[in-house]
Amino acid sequence: MAYPMQLGFQDATSxxxxxxxxxxxxxxxxxxxxxxxVLYIISLMLTTKLTHTSTxxxxxxxxxxxxxxxxxxxxxxxxxxxxLYMMDEINNPSLTVKTMGHxxxxxxxxxxxxxxxxxxxxxxxxxxxxxELRLLEVDNRVxxxxxxxxxMLISSEDVLHSWAVPSLxxxxxxxxxxxxxxxxxSTRPGLFYG
Length: 194
Hints:
With about 190 residues, the chain is α+β, with helices and mostly antiparallel strands. It is built from 2 helices and 7 strands; from the N terminus they run ααβββββββ. The model has no long low-confidence stretch (mean pLDDT about 90).
């Protein structure tokens, strides 16, 4: 759960979100190093009156500033592709939940069991109890087992929706007439908002 004035991400609940957090830190460090180098070069150019004229036509410098950014992009792209393929991987799910987005609520159906479906409506602001969160509390929560692979089938009946749980690293669009699929696995128990 995010807190007021929080600067970072929510605590990771799934292995995918842990990988995404590591990738974020990896990329942020690269961006920080590049920004520091550029700032140093700019400050050096502004404070130094001396220029080395032979570097203006140097073939070696042009080769370096072409190859170095390509290597940096590869250092960012390879971990990104690995995580992207991990997110699309389906590992023999133990449970399947069908999620349908409606104009003002979500419908859930546990397809592995007969007649186990319900609607989840947001609780109106005047009916909230102290400590409950506005626009996040619902009357029927989805209950899922932890440390089991769960397949979510997500679609919509009327308009575009977005089914997201940030601490699980999930965000899937619910599009009318299209069935999207995502996999999740929670490594710890808790109440996760999305």
